[in-house]
């Protein structure tokens, strides 16, 4: 079977995409993204705010501190990096 690029993209599984805020851009080609999630606790029925921090690969160092970004799951790039920067959704306000 000859697969074109269009059909190959359809067969590929969807990767996990998260949206969060850049809390650190001090490393070269790496950003730290904080993702907030609110869920209801299964036993106590109380709403819980959860903040997780992910290290993501930023090849061109485009994302800056305070930017809202989307990151996508990828293969392991280093010991801690398992995510790549997909796009910068909103730039931070310059103070």
Written overview of the protein:
There is one protein chain. This protein has one domain (13-90): Nucleic acid-binding proteins (OB fold (Dihydrolipoamide Acetyltransferase, E2P)), CATH 2.40.50.140. It contains one helix and five strands. It has one helix spanning 5-11, and strands at 17-24, 30-40, 47-57, 68-73, 83-90. Strands 1-2-3-5-4 form a five-stranded mixed barrel. A hairpin with a 5-residue loop joins strand 1 and strand 2 (30-40). The mean pLDDT is 91.
Defining traits:
mainly beta, 1 helix, OB fold (Dihydrolipoamide Acetyltransferase, E2P), five-stranded mixed beta barrel, 95 residues, globular, 5 strands, 7% helix
Blueprint of the fold:
Layout: H1 5-11, E1 17-24, E2 30-40, E3 47-57, E4 68-73, E5 83-90
Parallel strand pairs: 3-5
Antiparallel strand pairs: 1-2, 1-4, 2-3, 4-5
Could you provide a short overview of the structure?
The protein is mainly β.
Share of residues in helices: under 10%
Estimate the global geometry from the Cα principal axes. Answer: globular
Just give the CATH class: Mainly Beta
Number of strands: 5
How many individual domains?
A: 1
Q: Estimate what percentage of residues fall within beta strands.
A: over 45%
Q: What is the mean pLDDT?
A: 91
CATH superfamily: Nucleic acid-binding proteins
Oligomeric state of this protein: single chain
Question: Radius of gyration over alpha carbons?
Answer: 17 Å
Strand order of the largest sheet: 1-2-3-5-4
H-E string: HEEEEE
Structural class: mainly beta
């Amino acid at each position: 079977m000859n697969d074109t690029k269009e059909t190959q993209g359809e067969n590929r599984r969807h990767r996990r995409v998260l949206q969060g805020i850049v809390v650190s851009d001090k490393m070269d080609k790496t950003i730290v993204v904080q993702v907030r999630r609110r869920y209801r606790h299964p036993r106590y029925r109380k709403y819980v705010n959860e903040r997780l921090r992910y290290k993501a690969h930023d090849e061109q160092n485009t994302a800056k501190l305070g930017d809202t970004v989307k990151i996508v799951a990828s293969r392991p790039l280093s010991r801690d990096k398992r995510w790549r920067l997909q796009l910068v959704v909103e730039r931070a306000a310059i103070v």
